[in-house]
């Protein structure tokens, strides 16, 4: 059986500051519409982490939309210098349910 960690996925930041996670990623990590997730920047990088919310008091909390999209908070996009059309490679860590988005340089 193939592991999601071994596959390569991509997403793109749209004009509403949303990204859409591929269905396979959402299914593997049980991320369904309406689920609260935590979104933040990995310290010292411009990579974004996404994880199901477990009651964090510090990070940004967002809700997964019906089509699997997640809004990236404006403070994150501004701090990291992201803009509409930026593409990201998605890395999935199944063991702890973490998703990392690494910006692709064009």
Structure description:
This protein is mainly beta and 106 residues long. It has two helices and eight strands. The longest helix has 7 residues, at 74-80. It starts with 8 loop residues before the first strand and ends with a strand.
Which structural category fits the helices and strands? mainly beta
Q: What is the makeup of the main sheet?
A: 6 strands, antiparallel
Principal-axes geometry comes out as globular
Count up the helices: 2
How large a portion of the residues is in β-strands, by DSSP E?
35-45%
Q: How many β-strand runs?
A: 8
Rounded radius of gyration (Å): 13 Å
What strand order characterises the main sheet? 1-7-8-4-3-5
Low-pLDDT runs: none
Question: Helix proportion of residues, in percent?
Answer: 10-25%
Mean pLDDT score, rounded? 89
Q: Which series of helices and strands comes N to C? A: EEHEEEEHEE
Termini gap = 33 Å
Q: How is the secondary structure organized here?
A:
Elements lengths: L8 E4 L5 E3 L2 H6 L7 E6 L6 E5 L7 E4 L5 E3 L2 H7 L6 E7 L4 E6 L3
Describe this structure in a few short sentences.
With 106 residues, the chain is mainly β.
Features:
single chain; 106 residues; mainly beta; six-stranded antiparallel β-sheet; two-stranded antiparallel sheet; 2 helices
